[in-house]
Write a structure and sequence with these properties.
Strands 3, 6, 7, 9, 10 and 11 form a 6-stranded mixed sheet that branches. Strands 13, 15, 16, 18, 19 and 20 form a 6-stranded mixed sheet that branches. It is built from 6 helices and 37 strands. Helices cover about 20% and strands about 45% of the residues. It is an alpha+beta fold and about 500 residues long. Mean pLDDT is about 85; it is low at about 5-20 and about 450-510. The protein is elongated, with a radius of gyration of 55 Å. It has 5 domains: about 25-115, Macroglobulin (MG2) domain (Immunoglobulin-like, Sandwich); about 125-210, Immunoglobulin-like; about 215-300, Immunoglobulin-like (Sandwich); about 305-405, Immunoglobulins (Immunoglobulin-like, Sandwich), CATH 2.60.40.10; about 445-505, no CATH class. Bound molecules: 2-acetamido-2-deoxy-beta-D-glucopyranose (3 copies). The site of one 2-acetamido-2-deoxy-beta-D-glucopyranose (NAG) has 5 residues, from strand 22.
Length: about 500
């Protein structure tokens, strides 16, 4: 009871004191709502009235931090200056206090928001994931990073060309890169304050889109090192792929050698023994991603040997005259033959006025001739090892002129003759059968039968067979199977033929 009395008395005393000394109302803060970073701006704070004449301390406060303070004597307005920093963004208040008297409650103005404008600077491109070399099809993202400026617009350039994108695109994202994405990137970031544009360019970033190396081809040529030693120059070659490419040559499963370079082809030297199987070789290629393999190649070098033969084919032109001739040259053995063609013992180039050479190694070489006066002469071919031209083997000589190339090929002659023989045979059989039936029929047929016979005869050759067969039906049964079938077929056709015939109304005449 006593304690509560004391509290009430104390509270009363406090009330009496306050009524003499508290501020009447609140301070009033005024000043800019936005400001450019590092500018100096001014705020004013009008203190509230105080009954006593004590000086008032005015403070510009943000988040319990005093940014500036001024003493105000006899109610004058306090002027604050503020050098704007990005951290000043937020609510500002003015607090009024009575100096040297902490018993008097301070008074606080309403809050005013300050927006700090930061000009954009220090643009740089960040790459995610952090790699300037990317394989085709991989993802890449470029981020235009800068200071903590706000309201920023972006422009992206690839090789100096503006990439059409939304101005708010801070990030340039490629889910699946292609060779078109290759090149130098720059981002430009801008923002504006009071009609002034602030701008920063990033330094360029070069993105290289790498093409995966393609499946390599493998082939080899042979060189003669000296009288007894030969080497195969084995080439591994890819048609595309961004360097550097590592090529590895394997003999069966064993690594023979590795080479890395800027070219899409490399050559390895492997010594070989002529006529011997040196095993299967294959290439592997990689430029950082997956490994690709070539086909396997049997490394075997057989020198040219045996007979070299030359033959020719004639080709008929529009008017059934021979207008071109192909000569073929083949060697019996040899994996690396080199062919040479000669006319009248003069070596022919690969292409001339009336001829061209088409090598189809290792099997053969073709000499395509358009016939005429200049192509008359004696032809032969020489075959040597491509790696050793001291081994040439010559073919027999072949003389060609219009008489030779116009001679019909034996096969054609044989075919024509065979066809002709068959034709003669068929005609003779027909005649013979015809004579036989004609003789028999006149002995036996009725008048009606004869009339029909005559009708059919008007069709002459075309219907000759059915005519005989129809008659044959009445007489002796046919013996052969073939004959039987023909008989049925012609019986089916018979009524139509007769109907058609009578429609035309040609009178049947008795001979
Ligand atoms: C307030 O106190 C300080 C020392 O604490 C003194 O220097 C100053 O003169 C005093 N001001 C008033 C108005 O009493
Ligand atoms: C190998 O590559 C080089 C350079 O790319 C090229 O000049 C050369 O012709 C190629 N060799 C073969 C055999 O293709
Ligand atoms: C080749 O020799 C024949 C005679 O054997 C001759 O008629 C022909 O004109 C010669 N051809 C060439 C191109 O020298």
């Amino acid at each position: 009871m006593f304690a509560s009395l004391i509290v009430i008395i104390l509270g009363l005393c406090h009330c009496i004191k306050d009524s003499n000394q508290t501020f009447q109302g609140f301070p009033q803060l005024s000043g800019p709502f936005e400001a450019l970073e590092s500018d100096t701006v001014k705020y004013k704070c009008k203190p509230p009235a105080l009954l006593t004449n004590e000086s008032i301390l005015l403070q510009l406060v943000q988040r319990d931090q005093i940014l500036d303070e001024k003493t105000s004597v006899s109610g004058e307005t306090g002027n604050f200056t503020l050098k704007v920093k990005p951290s000043h963004e937020g609510y500002l208040k003015c607090v009024a206090r009575v100096r040297n008297d902490s018993n008097i409650e301070h008074s606080v103005s309403s809050a005013q928001y300050l927006k700090v404008f930061v000009p954009v600077t220090n643009a740089t491109i960040l790459i995610l994931p952090d790699a300037t070399e990317v394989f085709e099809g991989a993802m890449t993202n470029l981020l235009c990073s800068h200071n903590d400026a706000t309201n920023v617009s972006y422009k992206w350039y690839l090789n100096g060309q503006l990439i059409p994108m939304s101005p708010s695109a801070k990030e340039l994202s490629r889910q699946s890169t292609t060779s078109k994405d290759n090149g130098s990137y720059v981002c430009v970031a801008t923002n504006r304050f009071n009609k002034k544009e602030y701008r920063t360019n990033s330094s360029e970033v070069i993105i290289r889109i790498k093409v995966r190396v393609s499946k390599p081809d493998i082939y080899f040529t042979v060189i003669k090192e000296d009288a007894h030693n030969y080497s195969a120059m084995v080439t591994c070659q890819s048609t595309y792929g961004t360097p550097y490419i590592t090529f590895s040559l394997y003999n069966e499963e064993k690594l023979f050698a590795n080479k890395t370079g800027e070219d899409r082809n490399v050559t390895f030297k492997v010594s070989v023994i002529l006529g011997r199987n040196m095993g299967w070789f294959h290439c592997q290629a990689s430029n950082g991603d997956r490994i690709v393999h070539s086909e396997s190649l049997a490394l075997r070098v057989v020198p040219v040997s045996g007979h070299v033969t030359v033959r020719f084919d004639s080709h008929l032109g529009k008017n059934y005259a021979v207008d071109s001739v192909t000569l073929f040259c083949e060697a019996e053995n040899g994996t690396h033959p080199r062919y040479q063609w000669f006319l009248n013992n003069t070596l022919l180039d690969n292409k001339g006025r009336f001829y061209s050479v088409e090598n189809q190694p290792p099997e053969q070489s073709l000499l395509l001739l358009s016939v005429g006066r200049s192509s008359v002469g004696t032809y032969h071919c020489n075959v040597s090892d491509s790696f050793d031209n001291t081994t040439a083997i010559g073919s027999k000589k072949l003389y060609l002129d219009e008489k030779v190339w116009n001679r019909l090929p034996d096969a054609l002659v044989a075919t024509v003759f065979a066809c002709f023989t068959v034709l003669i045979l068929l005609v003779s059989i027909c005649c013979w059968v015809g004579v036989l039936f004609r003789r028999r029929r006149y002995g036996k047929t009725s008048l009606m039968g004869l009339e029909m016979q005559r009708t059919v005869a008007a069709y002459e050759g075309v219907l000759d067979v059915s005519q005989y067969v129809e008659d044959a039906d009445e007489m002796t049964p046919p013996s052969g199977e073939e004959f039987d079938q023909a008989s049925e077929a012609s019986l089916d056709e018979w009524p139509d033929i007769s109907a058609e015939k009578s429609f035309h109304g040609e009178p049947a005449e008795f001979p």
